[in-house]
Amino acid sequence: MQFLHTMVRVSDLDASLQFYCDLLGLKEVRRKENDKGRFTLVFLAAPEDESRSSELQAPELELTWNWDPEEYQGGRNFGHLAYRVDDIYALCQKLQDNGVTINRPPRDGHMAFVRSPDGISVELLQKGEALEPQEPWASMENTGSW
Ligand SMILES: C[C@@H](O)C(=O)SC[C@H](NC(=O)CC[C@H](N)C(=O)O)C(=O)NCC(=O)O
Ligand code: NI
């Protein structure tokens, strides 16, 4: 078995591509328009995953944009997407400078949580740090600086 993708529905495709690609750094690998179903699928991959030489497909994020507006209420059953990043401070500063909500700032240089335009939680983990936090995470207010 192989993990292929996670699908999230987005209310504004352009705003989502600006967040996931322009700001977060994911790359669009393909898209599929479906006129009959009135939706667009856009598949994104992280650069390092995308350039992976193995025959295993890179794990992808599938954005589903329904052309007819729908209300998406975030279920508590979905937690977050997680990406390992080269420089968590620089990335969070860029995200904040572009109006992205930083739910958990990277004070410890290890882990941060940000929100997509649709409120999807995205965990950012600093490359080189342990994947699981040693200390239980106490929720922290974002004071705008770290
Ligand atoms: C291409 C493959 O990875 C898919 O996931 S297609 C699955 C298909 N998606 C849609 O029909 C998109 C539009 C639909 N209105 C929606 O919002 O899902 C599908 O079966 N979706 C149902 C689901 O529960 O994912
Ligand atoms: Ni899918």
What can you see in these coordinates?
- This protein is an alpha/beta fold and 146 residues long.
- It folds into 2 domains: 62 residues, 2,3-Dihydroxybiphenyl 1,2-Dioxygenase, domain 1 (Roll); 57 residues, 2,3-Dihydroxybiphenyl 1,2-Dioxygenase, domain 1, CATH 3.10.180.10.
- Helices cover 17% and strands 32% of the residues.
- It is built from 3 helices and 8 strands, in the order E-H-E-E-H-E-E-H-E-E-E.
- The chain is globular.
- The model has no long low-confidence stretch (mean pLDDT 88).
- It binds the ligand C[C@@H](O)C(=O)SC[C@H](NC(=O)CC[C@H](N)C(=O)O)C(=O)NCC(=O)O and nickel (II) ion.
- Ligand LWWXVOTR binds next to strand 1, strand 3 and strand 4.
- The ligand C[C@@H](O)C(=O)SC[C@H](NC(=O)CC[C@H](N)C(=O)O)C(=O)NCC(=O)O binds next to strand 1, strand 3 and strand 4.
Structural class by SSE content: alpha/beta
Strand fraction: 25-35%
Q: Give the overall silhouette.
A: globular
| Radius of gyration (Å) | 16 Å
User: Unreliable segments (pLDDT under 50, ≥5 consecutive)?
Assistant: none
CATH fold annotation of the largest domain: 2,3-Dihydroxybiphenyl 1,2-Dioxygenase, domain 1
Helix content: 10-25%
The strand order across the widest sheet is 1-4-3-2
- Largest sheet descriptor: 4 strands, mixed
Name the bound molecules: the ligand C[C@@H](O)C(=O)SC[C@H](NC(=O)CC[C@H](N)C(=O)O)C(=O)NCC(=O)O, nickel (II) ion
DSSP summary: helix tally = 3
CATH class identity of the largest domain: Alpha Beta
CATH architecture of the largest domain: Roll
